[in-house]
Specification:
2 domains; alpha/beta; 9% strand; Rossmann fold; 609 residues
């Protein structure tokens, strides 16, 4: 078990690695991001109509501003000569009609974009999940659960926000910006040239501020992620925290992370404050300067009052569009980074295909390990197995014993084909396990581990996990054969009893028997027991052992055991030391060798002379 210090150091190293991989907006990144549009393709009809109504809605918005301009001209007695003359009441009706139409277009656009984003991102979410669950064990050993959860939740939510809102808003602001620019040059060319002369300076300053603000915003988000990581690690390992009496340490660690986030947030606030000051003084100052020049034009008769009013309105919405584009840039940049992380997962090769098994291998259960050497991919410098030879006949019960770290559990994991061998071969029924269809092979292997992990649903759902197509009678039979029917019937909800997260509402012995029932329902040809009773009290062990004896009948079985009393009757016992088999034989044969490793182990548990 890792210490809290190990966890903390691992977290720091992973954060540094994440900083190195932080995405930047490049042409390649944009191209990668556009590939996500394939999830929108099935709903392109909705997308096209949404874009159409977006454009129409933006056009009607600009028309509304133009109508306000002309209404002002009519009220001042100087209507534009090139437009039909309407009364003020008629303009009022025009406003009402345009607002109703724009509201209708907005509703249709919002709904169509929601269809595209919800359904498209649902497809993406399913593909990412399917890609993750079909990865090999090594994939999960190299990544944290929180990181994978973030890919399938936070990253996809970012993309969903883009397709449901940000993309539409971005295009709307572009239409409004260009449309307003064309209109103001048409209605007030002199003022427009004055604005164009000052506009680049304002934009450049805004861009500089924007970059700095985005940088600090990312730092704040990273700091917030640090605090969330500490909370997640502490809550998941609260028993370790309690047992090491390290509440003070976790409090200090969390407090430090929160204080760091506050410092970054305050720096962020200072820069934003300066930016707002710039907006109020420079940007609005520029607007008032243009307004002053426009008032002079009106006074000199060079410009109609309504045209000045319209110019101000169009300029205002142009400024809003520019500000909106700046904010949307940050959102789209984050979405590009999220897309790259998601695509990284989607491009990975899978270990198994998500297809239902059609045929059964009908294995006999002969197992052979030939000169197997192995090092874990995450610890390649340490050789765990150093030339293992095993020969297990169909229907035999064999046991693996030895000190912790001798390689017992590794043998079971290799038989399940969780890892590729460094050297040697493993065969089942004389055929290399790499030549089998992997799901079909694992379908014939059943495992009852020491630490049983149940899903948080009902007892029925957990037993049914062994064979989702089993009938209710099959579930009851499996529960009876595993000695768990009695305690299940004692619950008010019986098989519908919720076991809680990881089966926390059940005792250790009850969880073990549920796991055995699950294995019985799977009906594997080869059974793997990984210290299935080592953590139980004597009474629970007796009940569980009876259930295991029922499960072992007629199957090839490999039993990892610390309690030697549970394996006295097996056909052969293999004793491992430092990744090698140092002894093999029956309990009586090995016990009689007083100089042997098994005798030394047995002497600690039995009264041997």
């Amino acid at each position: 078990m890792q210490t809290l210090l190990d966890v903390f150091l691992l977290h720091i190293s992973m954060k540094k690695e994440e900083e190195k991989k932080k995405p930047k907006i490049t042409r390649a990144g944009l191209k990668e991001a556009l590939s996500i549009f394939k999830y929108i393709k099935p709903y392109r009809g909705y997308f096209i109509f949404a874009m159409l109504f977006l454009a129409l809605g933006s056009g009607f918005f600009l028309l509304l501003i133009g109508a306000a301009k002309e209404m002002t001209n009519v009220a001042s007695g100087s209507p534009s000569y090139n437009l039909p003359l309407l009364t003020l009441n008629q303009y009022g009706l025009l406003f009402l009609g345009v607002l109703i139409i724009q509201g209708l277009f907005s509703y249709i656009r919002t709904y169509f974009f929601a269809v595209v984003s919800e359904r498209g991102m649902a497809d993406l979410r399913k593909d990412v999940y399917n890609k993750i669950i079909t990865q090999p064990i090594v994939f999960f050993e190299k990544r944290r659960v929180g990181e994978l959860t973030s890919r399938i939740t936070t990253d996809i939510e970012q993309l969903q926000s883009v397709f449901s809102h940000s993309l539409a808003e971005f295009l709307r602001q572009i239409i409004i910006l260009f449309g307003s620019t064309i209109i103001i040059f048409f209605i007030a060319p002199k003022l427009s040239f004055i604005m164009v002369a000052t506009f680049p300076v304002v934009v450049i300053i805004a861009i500089v501020f924007g970059r700095h603000i985005r940088k600090l915003s990312r730092k704040r988000q990273d700091a917030l992620a640090d605090t969330n990581t500490i909370v997640e690690e502490t809550f998941q390992s609260f028993t370790v925290v309690k047992s090491f009496v390290n509440e003070w340490y976790e409090s200090k660690r969390y407090g430090g992370a929160v204080n760091n986030m506050v410092d970054i947030a305050l720096s962020f606030a200072k820069v934003r404050g300066v930016f707002f000051m710039f907006v109020i003084t420079i940007l609005f100052g520029g607007i008032f300067f243009i307004l002053w020049r426009g008032a002079i034009f009106v006074q000199n008769g060079e410009m109609a009052v309504g045209d000045l009013f319209g110019f101000i309105l169009y300029t205002g919405i142009m400024g809003g569009a520019i500000a909106g584009l700046g904010n949307l840039y940050t959102v789209l940049a984050g979405a590009i980074g999220a897309t790259e992380r998601i695509q990284e997962i989607l491009k990975m090769d899978t270990e198994v295909a998500l297809t239902e098994l059609k045929t059964d291998l009908n294995l006999s259960g002969d197992i052979s390990f030939n000169d197997v050497k192995f090092s874990y991919p995450t610890r390649e410098d340490i050789q765990v197995l150093k030339g293992i030879d095993l020969d297990i006949k169909a229907g035999q019960r064999v046991a693996l014993v030895g000190q912790s770290g001798s390689g017992k559990s590794t043998i079971v994991q290799l038989l399940l084909n969780f890892y590729n061998l460094s050297n040697g071969t493993i065969t089942v029924d004389g055929k290399n396990i790499n030549d089998y269809d992997l799901p079909s092979l694992r379908k014939n292997l059943g495992i009852v581990p020491q630490e049983v992990i149940l899903f948080g649903g009902t007892i029925r759902e957990n037993i049914l996990y062994g064979n989702p197509k089993a009938s209710d009678q099959d579930i009851i039979d499996a529960a009876r054969r595993s000695n768990c029917l009695e305690f299940i019937e004692g619950f008010p909800e019986k098989f519908e009893t919720i076991v809680g997260e990881r089966g926390i509402k059940l005792s250790g012995g009850q969880r073990q028997r549920i796991a055995i029932a699950r294995a019985i329902l799977k009906d594997p040809r080869i059974l793997l027991l990984d210290e299935a009773t080592s953590s139980l009290d004597a009474e629970s062990e007796k009940v569980v052992q009876e259930a295991l004896d029922e499960l072992l009948k007629g199957r090839t079985s490999i039993i990892i055991a610390h309690r030697l009393s549970t394996i006295k009757d097996v056909d052969c016992i293999y004793v491992l030391e430092n990744g090698k088999i140092v002894e093999k034989g029956t309990h009586d044969q090995l016990s009689s060798n007083k100089d042997g490793a098994y005798h030394a182990l047995a002497k600690l548990q039995f009264e041997l002379s």
